[in-house]
UniProtKB/TrEMBL annotation:
Lineage, highest ranks first: Bacteria, Bacillati, Actinomycetota, Actinomycetes, Catenulisporales
Any GO BP annotation: response to amino acid
A Gene Ontology molecular function term of the record: sequence-specific DNA binding
One CC-aspect GO term: cytosol
Leader peptide range in chain numbering: none
Cited SMART domains: HTH_ASNC
Classification via SUPFAM superfamilies: Dimeric alpha+beta barrel, Winged helix' DNA-binding domain
InterPro entries: ArsR-like_HTH, AsnC-type_HTH_dom, Dimeric_a/b-barrel, Tscrpt_reg_AsnC-like, Tscrpt_reg_AsnC/Lrp_C, WH-like_DNA-bd_sf, WH_DNA-bd_sf
Record protein name field: Transcriptional regulator, AsnC family
Amino acid sequence: MESIANKILYGAARLLRDSVLPVILSAMPNDVRAARPVLDDTDRAILAVLSADARTPNNAIAEAVGIAPSTCLARIRTLRERGVIRGFHADIDPTALGRGLQAMIAVRLRAHTRERVQEFMRDVPGLPDVVGVWHVAGADDYLLHIAVADSDALRDFVLEHLTTHPAVGHTETSLIFGHLRGAVGATAPVTDQTPIGPLPSER
């Protein structure tokens, strides 16, 4: 009996290693799988200012951080090139666009195959009502943040785009009553990596 149980556990472990994990990793964007960029205190101070207001002028950022404007500009350029700063976006109120109802939809796929994952990622994230998509671990595979006009539009979205989708096996919808944007912790210390040295312009 113990031998049979060990064989079952061994088979399940191999299935997870050889089939499930490769599919999950293949669907992740490259910046998630890549090594975490190493930042020093100056980088983190710049990111903290930009996180509070991405429109802050370069001179004001340099003054707040305590470096020369030219150095600040070079730092920001490097952070963008390294993929630390992925973009600058306007935070738009969906209600102003006629989308007064927001929801988070948990999606469970029918099967964790490469074909199903690619099928879902090809069709769903680009839909007009989708604000964001998270690939998660646990009972569900994806979380969809959507913004629609009303409850009828929410029902139509689920029926037309999810329950009839060949890759989707189960959905669960939660209404969003409110949202608060948290601090990204740009100035929090990192103890498991060595900070980068100064840029050539600072030496």
